[in-house]
């Protein structure tokens, strides 16, 4: 009986360890050129200009080894007759240099404020009259089987930001922008783009159950307003491009305030070798802010 009990305990430990190891696992890349002034007591993170000008972006590689997704459900409830209600089910994706706390990490975050809108872009459904069933202001599809490209910016269904808490000690955040930051967004909004050539975007090839590549666009199902990402769902971004601007500069433009000089910026990604991520949603310590 003692031997059986020990074997049972060892088996349970092995199962728990295997589950624990899966949390944060995945593959990806996030490299490019970044600058951050006042990075630490040692000075700036940047490449010196040979002519003695402003210190510019320097090569940077996040080397992501920990991937986490946190689904956050819209707390509104459906009632009878509310079938057309769109739920703003959220998904926060983090690419981290390590599995340490985010306060001690370099972290690239993709904050999806509407899983429904991303799912519509990935599904690529067309109506019988030829109308595209997705938000063309924030989504571009090169073909019926191409991944859905989503614009990245503070006013898009997907936002992105970078914080270098392991590389630097300065408390700075850079946000993704889809076009150069104007003096004031209300008077000079971003130019209209119809070909997906934004300065910041992410292409999702798999987003939970959203993709239906085996069907013609007119035969694809409409995305439910309740669409959400579940545990064990796959999140696969085949590539991304993130153009980063100091969040203080972006905030000033949004609020019609004088723009400060940027202290952080640069870009990451642009092709699958420099920007991508692929992982399954797992529950566990480190993967969720709220276990």
Describe the protein in words:
The protein is an alpha+beta fold and 291 residues long. The protein has one domain. 13% of the residues lie in helices and 31% in strands. The chain has three helices and 14 strands. The protein has helices spanning 2-22, 115-123, 247-254, and strands at residues 27-40, 43-45, 58-61, 66-72, 90-96, 106-112, 139-140, 148-151, 158-164, 174-176, 201-207, 234-246, 264-269, 275-280. The two termini are 36 Å apart.
Number of helices: 3
Percent of sequence in beta strands? 25-35%
Q: Give the class from helix and strand content and strand pairing.
A: alpha+beta
- Please give the oligomerization state of what you see: single chain
Low-confidence spans: pLDDT under 50, at least 5 residues? 1-21
Count of strand segments: 14
Supply Rg.
21 Å
**Principal-axes shape call:** globular
Order of helices and strands: HEEEEEEHEEEEEEHEE
Distance between the termini: 36 Å
Domain unit count = 1
Mean pLDDT across the residues is 89
The amount of helix comes to: 10-25%
Largest sheet: 14 strands, antiparallel
Helix-strand layout with pairing:
Elements: H1 2-22, E1 27-40, E2 43-45, E3 58-61, E4 66-72, E5 90-96, E6 106-112, H2 115-123, E7 139-140, E8 148-151, E9 158-164, E10 174-176, E11 201-207, E12 234-246, H3 247-254, E13 264-269, E14 275-280
Antiparallel strand pairs: 1-2, 1-3, 1-13, 1-14, 4-5, 5-6, 6-9, 7-8, 8-11, 9-10, 10-12, 11-12, 12-13, 12-14
What attributes characterize this protein structure?
single chain, 3 helices, 291 residues, alpha+beta
Quick rundown:
The protein has 291 residues and is an alpha+beta fold. It is 13% helix and 31% strand. It is globular, with a radius of gyration of 21 Å.
């Amino acid at each position: 009986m003692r031997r059986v009990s020990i074997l049972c305990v060892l088996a349970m430990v092995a199962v728990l360890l295997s589950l624990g190891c899966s949390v944060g696992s995945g593959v990806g890349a996030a490299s490019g050129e970044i600058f951050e002034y006042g990075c630490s007591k040692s000075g700036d993170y940047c490449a010196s200009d040979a002519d003695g000008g402003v210190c510019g972006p320097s090569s940077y590689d996040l080397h992501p080894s920990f991937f986490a997704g946190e689904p956050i459900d819209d707390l509104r409830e459906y009632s009878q007759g509310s079938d057309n209600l769109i739920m703003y089910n959220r998904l926060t994706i983090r690419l981290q240099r390590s599995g340490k706390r985010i306060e001690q990490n370099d972290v690239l975050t993709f904050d999806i404020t509407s899983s429904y809108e991303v799912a519509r872009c990935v599904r690529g459904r067309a109506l019988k009259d030829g109308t595209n069933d997705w938000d063309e202001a924030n989504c571009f599809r090169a073909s019926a089987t191409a991944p859905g490209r989503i614009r990245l910016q503070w006013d898009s269904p997907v936002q992105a930001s970078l914080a270098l808490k392991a590389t630097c000690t300065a408390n700075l955040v850079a946000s993704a922008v889809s076009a150069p930051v104007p003096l004031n967004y209300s008077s000079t909004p971003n130019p209209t783009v119809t070909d997906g050539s934004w300065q910041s975007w992410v292409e999702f090839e798999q987003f939970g159950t959203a993709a239906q590549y085996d069907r013609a666009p007119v035969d694809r199902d409409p995305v439910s307003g309740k669409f959400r990402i579940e545990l064990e769902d796959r999140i696969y971004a085949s590539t991304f491009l993130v153009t980063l601007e100091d969040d203080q500069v972006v905030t000033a433009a949004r609020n019609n305030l004088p723009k400060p000089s940027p202290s952080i910026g640069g870009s990451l990604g642009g092709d699958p070798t420099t920007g991508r991520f692929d992982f399954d949603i797992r529950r566990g310590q480190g993967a969720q802010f709220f276990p």
